[in-house]
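Render Cold shock domain-containing protein in 3D.
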Amino acid sequence: MAVLTAGKVLRFDEVRGYGFIAPEVGDEDVFMHANDLVDEKYLYQEGSQVEFFLEMGEKGPKASNIRLVHQSSSHQVPRGGLAARPAVAAAAVDGERSVSPADDFSQELTEALLDSVGSLTGDQIKQVRACVVDIAEARGWVAP
């Protein structure tokens, strides 16, 4: 008999398609597999809150019908869109810039697109991102 349970993703390897969940109740980690995910697998990050049906598998506790309950706020677009977020200065390593403002903006834009429009393909995200970064650089919103 499967029991509806809540927990937090400890780790999930998108490439291998499996990981583990720390259930809110109990002390044994629960195995999770990509075939049992309700949402897109890239959304299941360390710390993601999930609900799942707890079952006993051949090798121990196993999760099925795993769905996200809460996504990390670090990947959500702020109210008012990206323009509402202050510009982030480039990181410095030994006095040198390691990430340009355009690269930082591109990363934030990619995360926003992934979180906002889950049906976009990787190629579509690249095309939209390149267009928006070009516009932002041309208007001086980010430095190249």
